[in-house]
């Protein structure tokens, strides 16, 4: 659920290397994603869902909390020993160009983005594995594609603005479960290709 979309009420904007390093870990990224998509949880339930040892899951939650990605949800606890956690924001936002002049922040941004891209890759492979269990119409409605064009910088910005508008539209429509719906995931990446 990492994005460059900006809604200050629902977004955490990353500007420091420490926060980016905190997310540059596959398990922390997965835990944050689970809390954002599935809602609040206890450490025990997160450990069970991820296959992580409870002590390790607790360490990852503490790291996420330290950097403001998650907060406690004490109103959900049934007793004083039970601790619930929720995502503090729905969206993580960053501006890669902010870090170009700062080697430490750039390295942290690079590490975080590589972990994010690796998680996308794993998720796409899991989707392929799950197709055999889906109804044919859901498989037929799926898509994987790419494209390339020679664009000016203004055209490149326009492409990204249009993609942002499409994501915002469908995210707004599908934020809450409704009859006949199932979770649908989209991933888009646009970037200038190195000239060779």
TrEMBL record:
Keywords from the named record: DNA-binding, Transcription, Transcription regulation
Pfam families for this protein: HTH_20
Keyword tRNA-binding: no
PANTHER family, A to Z: REGULATORY PROTEIN ARSR, TRANSCRIPTIONAL REGULATOR, ARSR FAMILY
Species annotation: Agromyces cerinus subsp. cerinus
CDD domains: HTH_ARSR
GO MF annotations in UniProt: DNA binding; DNA-binding transcription factor activity
Domain HTH arsR-type, residue spans: 18-90
Full protein name: Transcriptional regulator, ArsR family
């Amino acid at each position: 659920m990492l994005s460059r979309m900006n809604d200050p009420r629902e977004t955490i904007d990353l500007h420091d290397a420490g926060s980016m390093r905190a997310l540059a870990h596959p398990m922390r990224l997965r835990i944050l994603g689970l809390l954002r998509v599935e809602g609040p949880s206890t450490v025990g339930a997160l450990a069970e869902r991820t296959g992580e040892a409870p002590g390790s899951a607790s360490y990852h939650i503490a790291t996420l909390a330290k950097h403001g990605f998650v907060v406690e949800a004490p109103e959900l606890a049934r007793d004083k020993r039970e601790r619930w956690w929720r995502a503090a924001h729905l969206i993580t936002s960053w501006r890669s160009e902010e870090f170009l002049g700062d080697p430490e922040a750039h390295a942290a941004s690079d590490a975080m983005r590589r972990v994010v891209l690796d998680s996308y890759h794993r998720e796409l492979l899991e989707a392929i594995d799950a197709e055999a269990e889906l109804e044919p119409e859901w498989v037929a409605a799926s898509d994987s594609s790419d494209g390339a064009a020679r664009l000016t910088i203004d055209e490149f910005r326009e492409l990204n603005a249009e993609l942002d508008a499409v994501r915002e539209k469908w995210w707004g429509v599908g934020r809450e479960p409704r009859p006949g719906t199932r979770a649908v995931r989209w991933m888009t990446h646009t970037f200038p290709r190195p000239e060779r």
